[in-house]
Amino acid sequence: MNSKIFPIQVRFSDIDAMGIVHNAIYFEYFEQSRLLFFKELVGSKWDWSTHGVIVARNETDYLEPVFLNEDIFVEVFCTSIGTTSFSLGYKLLAKTGNETRLKAKGQSVIVCYNHETKTKTAIFDTWKELLFAHRGDF
User: Fold this and answer.
1) Where does the chain have alpha helices with state H?
2) Which residues, listed in sequence order, are joined to residue 52 by a DSSP beta bridge?
3) C-alpha dihedral over 92, 96, 100, 105, to 10 degrees?
């Protein structure tokens, strides 16, 4: 698997009354990593207005709580490629010493979208090969 890994900083505001990262914040961690993944995939000069994307679905499996001072990162990879959409998988991992633990896993269905015409489009030719190169699974 040729995934990309992005460090995440747990903020004090991410913590709920139980002292753990609130469940909704995991989607923010996945979103941050997805944006960095896209930036590495196509660069910062990509025309997002005509070659954009929208999120059609998000899901998360919470496996272990994340705490304030944990060293966490998100691994991003492509789980499937269709005609107008693709799915990205996420693994939220925490590292303590030499041990790495899977804290959560998630997936997003991403639809290629032209924001000017407000229509979905076929997956951009330049992306197909790049996404395929980052295929992975749980």
Assistant:
1) 25-42, 125-133
2) 113
3) -20
